[in-house]
Amino acid sequence: MALSLEDSEGVYFVPSFNGLQAPLNDPCACASFMGLKHSTSKYHLVRAILESIAFRNKQLYDMLQKEIQIPITNIRADGGVCNNAFVMQMTSDLINARIDRPTHFDMSCLGAATLAGLAVGFWADKEELQKLRQSEMVFKPQKKWQEYEVNMENWVKAVKRSMNWYNKA
């Protein structure tokens, strides 16, 4: 659905169902759609939702870069959202980095199992485990992040308008 449109036509989604976490840290922010108009379709809404995930990823990536001051040399994605090629590609474009998507997405479960296996001696060491990880796909930047700059700025504006919406409990 998202790829069937060139853009979201000025529709932005703010994903703050439980407030906004780092770097904004606003527990009173509300989830919202902004920029709705008579021509807005469900395709625009879907695209805006997926774009918001990529914009959030960019926001968090930039915060990490600033805070840790250690070059990030390898990015691996896991979890359900990494199934979405649109989000993965847009995130790769926005952060101008390769993103490695594994063949197995549920890494929390796998992580717990591998730690247990290491503890009981099923695997000898971490190097043996690294050989088990396989990449399904590596997303490489295809667009310059500046091509998204206006949309990112408008999304940030929408986020700011959603902040401090609810009274503190």
TrEMBL record:
<feature type="domain" description="Carbohydrate kinase FGGY C-terminal">
    <location>
        <begin position="7"/>
        <end position="119"/>
    </location>
</feature>
<dbReference type="Pfam" id="PF02782">
    <property type="entry name" value="FGGY_C"/>
</dbReference>
<dbReference type="GO" id="GO:0006071">
    <property type="term" value="P:glycerol metabolic process"/>
</dbReference>
<dbReference type="InterPro" id="IPR043129">
    <property type="entry name" value="ATPase_NBD"/>
</dbReference>
<protein>
    <recommendedName>
        <fullName>Carbohydrate kinase FGGY C-terminal domain-containing protein</fullName>
    </recommendedName>
</protein>
<dbReference type="GO" id="GO:0016301">
    <property type="term" value="F:kinase activity"/>
</dbReference>
<dbReference type="GO" id="GO:0016773">
    <property type="term" value="F:phosphotransferase activity, alcohol group as acceptor"/>
</dbReference>
<comment type="similarity">
    <text>Belongs to the FGGY kinase family.</text>
</comment>
<dbReference type="InterPro" id="IPR018485">
    <property type="entry name" value="FGGY_C"/>
</dbReference>
<dbReference type="GO" id="GO:0006641">
    <property type="term" value="P:triglyceride metabolic process"/>
</dbReference>
<dbReference type="GO" id="GO:0046167">
    <property type="term" value="P:glycerol-3-phosphate biosynthetic process"/>
</dbReference>
<dbReference type="InterPro" id="IPR018483">
    <property type="entry name" value="Carb_kinase_FGGY_CS"/>
</dbReference>
<dbReference type="GO" id="GO:0005739">
    <property type="term" value="C:mitochondrion"/>
</dbReference>
<keyword id="KW-0418">Kinase</keyword>
<keyword id="KW-0808">Transferase</keyword>
